Protein: Sodium:proton antiporter
Organism: Companilactobacillus futsaii
Amino acid sequence: MSLMVSTFILILASVVSIFLAQVFSKISVNYISMIIGALIFFIPIMGKNVMTFNSDIFIGLIVAPLLFFEGQVTRLNAVGKELKHIIQTTVFLVVICMILAGFGVWEIAGVSLPLAFILAAISTPTDATAMESVTNGLKMPKNEGTFLKMESLFNDASGIILLNMAILWYINGYINYGETLGDFFISAGGGVLFSFSAAWIMVLFRQILLRSSYNSLNAQSLIYILTPFVLYYAAEEIHVSGIIAVVCAGLVHNAEAQRSRLINAPQVHLGFDLVSMITEIFNSTFFVILGYMFTKIISEEKFTNASLTWIMIGLTLYLVNVLARYLYGRLRLDFNNKSSWIFALGESVLIILSLIVPTIAFRFLLKKDVTDDDAEKEVDKIRVEMVHRAIDSVNKMYLPDNVKKSVIFDLMAQKQRTRTRAFVKAWVDVVRHPEFTGAEKELEMRAFMNAFVQEREYLDMISQSEIKYQNYVFELYNEILLAETLVIGPTVSEDEE
């Protein structure tokens, strides 16, 4: 029961964060989620019902599906092309950062060398979910963005292996290099082999169902949503990297989606919608938990000289990681000065510093993207003109008054400017008047078909002239296609008795 209550509180907080992000559009939803998470701690009735943090549950139920869906939007072919750089950044760079950060903490803070390396191992993996926070409203250069994305997908396994090595060093007093290397190859390589084979079997199974009479849209969607959870825990059970497993499985499913989009369009579309919803909620939940845990730790910590030491350790780890990544970008990846700083600051994660510092620095390093406010104003103008053209085409058609009135009301709703009072009046009309006859339904459908053709033609013209708003126009085009699926369907002619 307590788990259910805790989950409900966190998801509710995530939903509130997403709504508030629409109100405060200039602030990343991740920052808002962290603030909401902090507020939960100070509300007794909510804070006391949030369960104690469990890393296994957190990684398995939130991080694993996020990485799976992140992998799914990445082409397997692109990973193959960047394999050399992926290995460099997820293995060699992680090791370099850990060594430099470990010795840096040991020298400055005076802690034991094994403990310093444990802290360094924790600080080296990059965070795939942090990029949106620090680049909100900015354009990330393609090359640097590709490196950061690929790195954040695959380097968690390296960090976990190195962390285990440092912990064993701390406990036993020595490093077993052979065991560490063996664990790395078994964990990473085993995760890759297991995930590709298991994911491919699941893909084939789903494809066979799609082509059979036993296919069920809801059951297929459930299988797809459960895939990252099943693969992660199965991989961990056989002692290979669950993180690597879900990422690679996502890559396999990316190729599947590209080649089976039209075999069952409603099912594929539902899958995209589910992924979008789960990713948005889980990503927000991730930062709600982060804000809650950070506030809890601070409130329970009694500030002493030891606290200042830990703050100094955090600063040291962050600065060493940033400088190591900068030098690696300059010397190994042949980046120029600006690109190296983008790569260095991109995702060197030590929670608060990793969010605040890049957010400020990127304002000077990256070009501004089209702001949401500017895009909203322009798209609103396009939407209004699009609807007016559709209504003009309907007015020119010969239609019964009740059908024409109904179609025009629905088209006007596309402008998203109809008042609630108008909706209430239309709702009352629907309740009071009988359903359209079969002939009227067909005329309504044809009126919508004609209107949507006019809207698509207008948007097609606009997309070629308004290049910087092209993606927003395509989203509007997609809305029309979805609207068309709602109003176009088989009609039944009215039987005359």
